[in-house]
User: Fold this.
Amino acid sequence: MNFVKHAFGRLEEYLLAVFMAAITIVVFVQVVFRQLGRSLPWSEELTRYLLVWITLIGASQGVKKASHVGVEAFALLLPMKPRKIIHIAVLLICVFFFAIIEVYSLSIIRLQIANHQLSPAMRIPMWTAYAALPAGAALMIVRYLQVLVRSVREFGKDHIAVGLED
Assistant:
């Protein structure tokens, strides 16, 4: 199980690094081509799609590292046990929210596949760009469930498990 969890985390980090490198290279090449009086019509589109993928995969990493912004002013006024209950409730709400996003984004992708919609510049199927949304939602569900399991296991301890890396 630890191998799967470690490989899953490394895959996210690897994809983020590859996509960031790809954006850097594509933008650099586009700048060079513009200086030569030419342009790559597909570079902006590819960069945009990769940035969407980076954002959604990075959001999953944000859950793992507990780096998302949260408003805790009210919860911090409470004793530890009610704080933990609120934390678990928030995690359940997040799982539910991303499950809804997962369902609706998959229905959008089904429509795009059925309609054979292509991107304007690269002429690739649009569902490949939109697939970032259900992929990101699935990653967020997995990460929130991991934090939820950890929070429930550590409920009796004197701290709140907020991420996966302490």
Summary: Residues 80-115 form the longest helix (36 residues). The chain has five helices and no strands. The chain has one domain: 2-153. Residues 2-153 form one domain.
